[in-house]
UniProtKB/TrEMBL annotation:
Protein name: Delta-1-pyrroline-5-carboxylate synthase
Organism, scientific name: Edolisoma coerulescens
Chief subcellular location: mitochondrion
Pathway noted in the entry: Amino-acid biosynthesis; L-proline biosynthesis; L-glutamate 5-semialdehyde from L-glutamate: step 2/2; Amino-acid biosynthesis; L-proline biosynthesis; L-glutamate 5-semialdehyde from L-glutamate: step 1/2
Catalytic activity: L-glutamate 5-semialdehyde + phosphate + NADP(+) = L-glutamyl 5-phosphate + NADPH + H(+); L-glutamate + ATP = L-glutamyl 5-phosphate + ADP
Subcellular location: Mitochondrion matrix
EC number: 1.2.1.41, 2.7.2.11
Function, in words: Bifunctional enzyme that converts glutamate to glutamate 5-semialdehyde, an intermediate in the biosynthesis of proline, ornithine and arginine.
GO biological process: L-proline biosynthetic process
Stated family: In the N-terminal section; belongs to the glutamate 5-kinase family.
Chain's gene name: Aldh18a1
InterPro entries: AceGlu_kinase-like_sf (IPR036393), Ald_DH/histidinol_DH (IPR016161), Ald_DH_C (IPR016163), Ald_DH_N (IPR016162), Aldehyde_DH_dom (IPR015590), Asp/Glu/Uridylate_kinase (IPR001048), G-glutamylP_reductase_CS (IPR020593), G5K_ProBA (IPR041744)
GO cellular component, one term: mitochondrial matrix
Pfam families to which the protein is assigned, alphabetical: AA_kinase, Aldedh
Annotated Aspartate/glutamate/uridylate kinase domain residues: 32-290
Amino acid sequence: IRCWSNIPFITMPLSRAHGKPFAHRSELKHAKRIVVKLGSAVVTRGDECGLALGRLASIVEQVSMLQNQGREMMIVTSGAVAFGKQRLRHEILLSQSVRQALHSGQSQLKDMAIPVLEARACAAAGQSGLMALYEAMFTQYSICAAQILVTNLDFHDEQKRRNLNGTLHELLRMNIVPIINTNDAVVPPPEPNSDLQGVNVISVKDNDSLAARLAVEMKTDLLIVLSDVEGLFDSPPGSDDAKLIDIFYPGDQQSVTFGTKSRVGMGGMEAKVKAALWALQGGTSVVIANGTHPKISGHVITDIVEGKKVGTFFSEVKPAGPTVEQQAEMARAGGRTLAALQPEQRAEIIYRLADLLTDQREDILLANKKDLQEAENKGRLALPLLKRLSLSTSKLNSLAIGLRQIAASSQDSVGRVIRRTRIAKDLDLEQVTVPIGVLLVIFESRPDCLPQVSALAIASGNGLLLKGGKEAAHSNQILHHLTQEALSIHGVRDAVQLVNTREEVEDLCRLDKLIDLIIPRGSSQLVRNIQKAAKGIPVMGHSEGICHVYVDADASVEKVTRIIRDSKCEYPAACNALETLLIHRDLLRTPLFDQIIDMLRVEQVKIHAGPKFASYLTFSPSEVKSLRTEYGDLECCIEVVDSVQEAVEHIHKYGSSHTDVIITENEKTAEFFLQHVDSACVFWNASTRFSDGYRFGLGAEVGISTSRIHARGPVGIEGLLTTKWLLRGDNHVVSDFSEHGSMKYLHESLPLPQRNAS
């Protein structure tokens, strides 16, 4: 722990031999020495007179945060000309107003004209004020800043270069942030086409080239170039087909069309790319990003250093396979082809996948064994997750049966007419089912999820992106290979893609133009993280599975222990396992209550007492910390309620709207419970474990949804479909239906076509 002005902060153990730039974004968190280049468009206001103070304060805060982590931060800044222009305009207006007031009277003030201001004079007037502003801002974080002004000539003089290098190293050693700028008060006009002077020298004609030169001279790990665009596009930003380039490789310049330069400043995107490639060649990693967007500018620098997908990352290492963006586009194209197949052809693919699961059983189990061994050796997975990771012959057989159910039930899922209306004579409207588009399914420690979800996506004609956990890498790889083998029989291999890149889940959730629905399968923390990270993409799922079983006063002795045992002990790690047991007060200290407690002890279930239950006992189990807990193991909470009404209120207050059960022989009480509990699944005298797509006869499920729109409960094929409207007319126009028109609306319901009986 280091201290500066009595404020402690943690120093990160950062060290890296400079030589090669980082190959992947995820490695940027190891960057120790960082240059942040602030373009003129970032630093200045929209009117180009004065500084964007709020934006600048946010940047200083981020740089200070990274400096206080033990990194060595340097800033290459623009803004002196804009700040000076603001000051000089103010002085000229003031001077003119005084002179004209003395000679011409107040009536002439409105005719004053401001002369064109020369850039060098503006820079001279603005440089001291700009630095004073930086000093004031950094002082708020107990950080000292120092100003350095350079010109191109300083880099051609060997002695000056050594002096500059020594000064910068000494400032960094003293934990001071150098603020570097071109000395625009004396710098000559830039020579055209003089960005690059050979392989080893870059001409300093703007702050982009200055930042690149400094980054290489100082052996910097990372250069962050902030501008007024999101990054590098394959065509000018704003054009219809422009796409942001996530990773740019040397040699890709031919695939890029550059637009005009920014509204202010000396450089444009072409200058930035040349400078970035020169820095990359010198061993410095580069990211070009937007520093002006109000939603991201407050954390753009820290996001880049954390390895998040922001802007364009320059890398010398091309990945072996397609990028995740390319995979999403392949999945969309493959999904559309898949949706156009005949239902029988989609069913054939799923039947083939079911056969492959049993035919290739030994290879699948061998791959799964590798995953299990690696997980056990690393010791990072809890027992419930290890159970989910494990595959067996019986699991594979159950998977194959479920897939065949999906194939059999999917014959008329896509293109089914669900409503027909005659709008007017010869004008008929149909509402038909269609795929949602591209699904992103993110799952942890559940390799059996891959063929299930793939089959449902195939049956519903959706493209699919799969992102599995690293702990199941071997299992997922072979299961995906078998899925693509099955898809190949009808030429739609690309419809299901497995994301194997280093893509972070948060970055995947930002692909709102490529992904239509995200379905998380995993821990409640995973689901919450995805719901938080999703930017403009709907998320279907549940964050928790806090399932209740309420034992009513009229419960059957024979049914109670069987249902509770199955709900809690059959598979405690499942999201549909019992977590809270509600007991009617009249059952306390009865033989039935003793049987429940004895059964739970025999099954080695750890009991946590709710507040009311604990108050009835002299010596009680440990009192529950929270009544809203998903244990995911052989643990449960027991609480006492006075009535079915109180049980319903408890479930609404502490439950997660997943699955809740009543055990009773009183039909009236049961119906009250069924009608009033607002959960996705509500059962009477049945285990919570029936909340499952396979057990519901859906074949399988992509997950269990607790949301209130689109799909709820176990989500099978129907939940992966949406609708579109087809209108068939004959020269119909709306004006014919006006008050004086020749046609009238009929709005007659028409019979639906017969569904396929098979």
